[in-house]
User: What shape does this take?
Amino acid sequence: TKAITLKPDFAKAYQLRGSLLLESDEPSAALEDFNAVLKYTHGSGFLFASRGEALRLLGRYSEAIADFDESIRRDSSVYLPYLWRGFAHQSADNRPGAAADVTRVVCLEPERVTGYFHRGSCRRKMDRLPEAIHDLSKCLELDPEYLPALSERGIAYGLMEDRPNAIQDFTRLLEQHESGYIFNLRAMQHYFS
Assistant: This one.
């Protein structure tokens, strides 16, 4: 903020402050700073991805997707714009678009747990249950402690009427996370027994 006060056209200072505001869950203020950067520069792929994320958090999905598109057009080798665009597609009820974007994340970063988790979650919501279970199992192979994947996989097993595996996942989830704040797991376990 001091740098901006001293030099009001210091685009990098706006971008850095915008990134901090985005991290601090202040997307409106972050968006103002990202827009200020574009007054002084043409912007970078990172700027468009960051501005897209601020727009997504504000519920402005079509604008967010346009910014993610621009970010990817500038540099298609970075996974984050694909992941965030996938979230925007998911929020806009475009599950095939979301699944395609998180598939790209998996291709770019095959060891990234969140790519498999989000693709598995999308596939579960699209009733592509065997594929969802495969992705969620890969996620748990990479990180056995990733509890959201354990829960999603348990739900997918339950939807496939594979009660033993559903109960096994929910039981393991209860054992690893007794407080149960993520889901009311005891109710789910009872439902599937």
User: Anything to note?
Assistant: The mean pLDDT is 90. The chain is about 75% helix and 0% strand.
